[in-house]
Amino acid sequence: MSTWTVRRVTPADEQAWRALYRAYREFYEMPDDESALDTVWSWALDPAHEVEAWVAADTDDRLGGLAHVRRFARPLAASTGLYLDDLVTHPDRRREGVGTAILEHVQRYAAAEGLTVVRWITAADNARARALYDQHATATPWVTYDLAPGVEA
């Protein structure tokens, strides 16, 4: 079992990050789109962009997983939360504590920043991920909707 360090991505992580993110997009049946990876990678390196990209690295600095997070306003609670957009573990590194290391890092970060919740969604049929998430968080009763801009309902 490896010991994982969760840290911000660096330019040196690009190829390993791309491989992980490509696999993540494939898992969710997103089309292969290098321009999308280029865009997200540019966000990851831009300290002014709202998205922060973190990676879990082993003692040899090999990446075992990644996460993308961003803050969001919570008007009803009059507070700010942290949204976990993406969490992916390298298929060869599953069951080695990568996901746990990332979730614990996200939790500590949110607490240190005074944020009031860490929130994310996952596919209802993603049993492997949900088994991990159920160990760290509480599933909510909320239902998610998507509304296409410019299209009348």
UniProtKB/TrEMBL annotation:
InterPro entries registered for this protein in UniProt: Acyl_CoA_acyltransferase, Bact_Acetyltransf, GNAT_dom
Keywords: Acyltransferase, Transferase
Domain N-acetyltransferase: 4-153
Domain of life assignment: Bacteria
One term of GO molecular function: acyltransferase activity, transferring groups other than amino-acyl groups
Pfam families: Acetyltransf_1
Protein name as catalogued: N-acetyltransferase domain-containing protein
Organism: Cellulomonas cellasea DSM 20118
